[in-house]
Design brief:
The chain is an alpha/beta fold and 333 residues long. The protein is built from twelve helices and 14 strands. The chain has two domains: 2-235, P-loop containing nucleotide triphosphate hydrolases (Rossmann fold, 3-Layer(aba) Sandwich), CATH 3.40.50; 244-329, Alpha-Beta Plaits (2-Layer Sandwich). 36% of the residues lie in helices and 31% in strands. The strands form three sheets. Strands 6-7-8-3-9-10 form a six-stranded mixed β-sheet, with helices on both faces. Strands 2-1-4-5 form a four-stranded antiparallel β-sheet. The chain is elongated. The protein binds adenosine-5'-diphosphate (ADP). Adenosine-5'-diphosphate binds at residues 13, 15, 20, 22, 40, 42-48.
Length: 333
């Protein structure tokens, strides 16, 4: 079931007579129950894109459908209803500083018309889910960043939305808190079957919890697909920049090639560099290597320098490809 369907979405802003195209012909779908990432550099158009999903922003061309309904055709009242089904959390948490944690979480329940006597119980249930029941009387200023984002998540979930939009929700948090918030979002996605859309500029966030990802580059959709597949085999330049390890080395000779090898857990148990020497008599120089978990699967990646002339380089590349490794040239960036 498709939750969002964007068809040819463009967005232009007019500023002092100048036209600026923030989004250009973006088409994608977001499926029910998935964790969908939208990644791009600052200014790429991510926030604009996410604001079209609940019609905080009108599109200039194309259409956005929510469960099949074209948002542009809906009345104000329908839009209000839909916004209750699409909750949002932000980098800056947006909590009410003068109200207790419990009051913050109860706030959307009032707007949603939940009877007063049920609100507290429901809000406490949400605080239990995010592990902050004991902080119900505290004020946001007394909480850590991670705890504030937990309160924001409890508040976002209180009125039982179908979708949670997260706009750079972990960007203000340190790596440990980021990890904890992402684990919590994953858990909520699993237990409540909530569709989650994550806007971020960090590939590590996408790798940790997203099923699929859209890469936005200067307002355009550069690439969309399964996160593990894009990690293994990025085809657009924008995707390569995100997944290639930053590499401080230039080739030691200008004819040498730098290539990135990616192998999953299975291939990692094979001594393929030793096999290369044994089978082809050729060697490579390892410039960087690391392992990471993408969608729960361990991947290794290496940047190696490949010496020799074109034909020799091709022999080496073919050897790795035949062994099931993904191989891409780094020089091309
Ligand atoms: P991101 O979230 O990827 O950082 P944004 O969607 O916030 O990018 O912005 C994309 C581009 O659109 C930026 O160049 C920004 O300056 C421009 N932009 C965003 N909102 C407006 C607006 N209301 N008026 C004019 N330009 C805007």
């Amino acid at each position: 079931m498709e939750v969002f369907q964007l068809q040819g979405v463009s967005k232009t802003y007019e500023n002092d007579g100048e036209t600026f195209r923030a989004l250009e012909d973006v088409s994608l779908t977001i499926e029910e129950g998935e964790i969908f990432g939208i990644i791009g550099m600052s200014g790429a158009g991510k926030s604009t894109l996410v604001r079209t999903l609940n019609r905080l922003e009108d599109v200039s061309e194309g259409s956005v459908r929510f469960y099949g309904q074209d948002l542009a055709t809906l009345s104000r009242r329908d839009i209000r209803n839909i916004r209750q089904q699409i909750a949002m959390i932000f980098q800056s948490f947006n909590l009410l500083g003068q109200r207790s944690v419990l009051a913050n979480v109860m706030q959307p329940l009032k707007i949603a018309g939940v009877p007063r006597h049920l609100r507290k119980e429901k809000a406490l249930e949400m605080l239990r889910i995010v592990g902050l029941e004991d902080k119900q009387r505290a004020y946001p200023s007394r909480l850590s960043g991670g705890q504030r984002q937990r309160v924001a998540i409890a508040r976002a979930l209180a009125a039982n939305p179908k979708v949670l939009l997260c706009d750079e929700a972990t960007s203000a948090l340190d790596p440990k808190m980021t990890g904890e918030i992402l684990d919590l979002l994953k858990e909520i996605n699993r237990t409540r079957k909530l569709t989650i859309v994550i806007i971020t500029h960090e590939m590590s966030v996408v790798e940790k919890i997203c099923n699929r990802v859209a890469i936005i580059d200067q307002g355009r959709l550069a690439e969309v697909g399964e996160v593990a597949e894009i990690f293994r085999n990025p085809t657009s330049n924008a995707a390569r920049k995100l997944v290639f390890p930053s590499n401080p080395f230039d080739p030691s000779s200008k004819n040498n090639k730098l290539i990135r090898l990616v192998f999953d857990g299975l291939a990692a148990s094979r001594p393929f560099i030793a096999e290369l020497v044994e089978k082809t008599g050729k060697t490579v120089n390892i410039l960087s290597a690391n392992t990471k978990s993408v969608g729960g699967i361990g991947y290794g990646q290496m940047v190696v320098e490949v010496p020799g002339d074109e034909a020799e380089q091709q022999t080496i590349i073919n050897f790795f490809r035949q062994g099931g490794l993904s191989v891409q040239e780094v020089n091309a960036l």
